[in-house]
Amino acid sequence: MELDLLEIIKQAGITGCGGAGFPTHVKMNCQVEYLIINGAECEPLLRTDRWLMRHKAKELVKAVEAIGTMVCASHLNIALKENYKDEISCLQQAIKEENSRVSLHLLPNFYPAGDEQAIVLEVTDRTVPPAGIPLDVGAVVSNVATVYAIYEAMQGMMFTHKYLTVTGEVKEPVIVHTPIGTSFEECIRAAGGSLLSDYYVISGGPLMGKVYSKEEALKQAVTKTTSGIVVIPADVPLVTLRNTPMNTILRRAKSVCIQCSRCTDLCPRYLSGHPLKPHKIMRKLAYAQSVDEILNDFDVRQAQICSECGVCETFACPMGLFPRQVNAYVKQALAKEKIRYERCEDTYSQREARAYRKVSSKRIATRLGVDKYYDYQIDRLVELSPDTVVIPLKQHIGAPSSAAVKVNDTVQAGSLVGRAAENALGANIYCGISGVVTKADTSVTVKKA
Q: Residue limits of the 4Fe-4S ferredoxin-type domain (predicted)?
C-alpha cells in the first residue's frame, strides 16, 4: 500500500534541521491557511539554506506543493531576504517551470528575520501569542533544509545526511554534505582546516549557537539539528560573552543596570506585541535577595516567553549586561518550580515601533566580532564519507530513540539504528554509512568494514 506523505516523513525520521529538532511528522499533522517556508537563514554567517535555494530550487518547489496539499494550505510562501538576489532568481525560475502556486515573500535584512514567530508576523501580519505556536494563527513553518529532506523522503530516501555551513577561520569556507554522526573535526578538515592553532567553535550560528573550546569541539558530532560549524578566535567578544560566569552576570545586573529600557525597546518579542520587558526583570532582580522570591511577579514570569535571540545583550544594552542570560536563568528557576506561563490577553498585535526598530544583521555581527566572515560567498559543496560515525540517540525534542542495533551488527547505509519510542514524541534515526556497529548505548558508533 502506498504511504501518504505524512507517513513517509515519519518513516524517514525527519526533524527540523535547525533549532530544537521538532519531529516533522508531528508538526505537519495539521490543516492551516499559511504554509511558510523559512529561507531567511536567521543566523548571519550561515549559508546552507541559500545554497539549497540556488541549487535545489525545483526540488524545493515540488516539495512545497506536496506539503501544501497535505496541510490544505491556501497560501504557500517561501520567505527569504530581499538581498538574496540569486536565490530569488532561481526560485522564480523554478516556480515558472513548475507552473507552481508557490509565491515568494521578500523580507528586509534584519535579525532575527528567520525566527519562527517573526517570519509568521512578516508574512501574515498576525502575532503568534506568547508561549504559542504558528498554528494558533493558522500557519505552519518549516525551514528550507527540512523541506529538502522531505523531497528526498518523497524519493524513498531516509534522513541520513546533513547539509551544513563550515566557515570562519578556515582555509576555504564550504557547504558540507555529510552523514549524521560525522565528527566536527572531519568537517573542519573538509574546509581546509583551521587557520588558527587555538580556536573556539560555534555549533550553529553566532547568536544562538553553542560555543565550544577546541578540545570540546573535537569531541562533537553532526546531528540532525547541526546547521553550521563556525571556527572563531578566542579573543572575539562573542567568546567573552558566552564564557562569563552566571554569578558575575547576576552581580553586574544588580549593580550596573541603568534602567534605560533599551533591551525592551529592541526586543523582538516585545515589538511583536508580547508583554516581555527585559528591563523590568533586570530591575526586580536587582532588588531581590534571590530569584526565588520574585518568581510570582508578573513581569518576571514573562521571561518564559523570551526566545533568547540575544538582541538585548549583543546589540541593545549600552552597559554590556546580559539580559538574555538573565532571562534564561529565570526561566530555569520557573521551570524548576513547575510554574507554567499564563497569557494575560486574548489577542496580540505588533507595536507600531517595530517597523523602525529592526536590527541590521551585519551590525549585530559586528558587535559580536564576527563581521569579518559576514560577506563570505560560499558556493562550493564538499561530500564527505567518513570511516566512522557516532550517532546520538537523543538529537530531537521528545523522548530519545532506543538502539535498534547491537554491537557487531552489520548495517547498510540507510539502516535504522535508533527506533522512536512507542506512543511518545520522537523520531527514527538512520545510519548514513555501511559498516559494523562497535557501540550501542546512548549513541550508536558505526565503522566502515
A: 296-327
For residue 269, report the phi and psi dihedrals to the nearest 5 degrees: -70, -45
Domains and CATH numbers, the chain: 5-154 (3.40.50.11540), 160-236+370-386 (3.10.20.600), 249-355 (no CATH), 387-449 (2.40.50)
Write phi, then psi, for 201 (nearest 5 degrees). Answer: -130, 130
Q: Which three cell numbers stand for residue 128?
A: 503568534
Please say whether the beta carbons of 171 and 235 come within 8 A.
no
**pLDDT 10s digits, 260-278:** 999 999 999 999 999 999 9
- Cα-based angle 215, 219, 224 (whole degrees, multiple of 5): 135
Tens of pLDDT, residue by residue over 183-242, are 999 999 999 999 999 999 999 999 999 999 999 999 999 999 999 999 999 999 999 888
Please report, for residues 83, 90, 93, 424, the alpha-carbon distance to residue 311 in angstroms, rounded to integers and kept in the order given. Answer: 21, 32, 35, 35
Collapse the DSSP code of 276 into the 3-class scheme (helix H, G, I; strand E, B; otherwise coil) and give the result: coil
- 126-144 tens-digit pLDDT: 999 999 999 999 999 999 9
- Closest C-alpha among 304, 301, 308 to residue 267: 308
Placement of cell 516523513 in the chain: 9
Predicted TM-score of the model (pTM): 0.96
Q: How far apart are CA 420 and CA 288, in angstroms?
A: 44
Return all residues near 400 (Cβ < 8 A) that are at least 6 apart.
393, 394, 421, 426, 442
Determine contact, residues 78/105, Cβ cutoff 8 Å.
yes
How large is the average pLDDT for residues 75-79?
Answer: 98
Q: What are the residues whose beta carbons fall under 8 Å from the beta carbon of 214, sequence distance 6 or more?
A: 198, 199, 200, 201
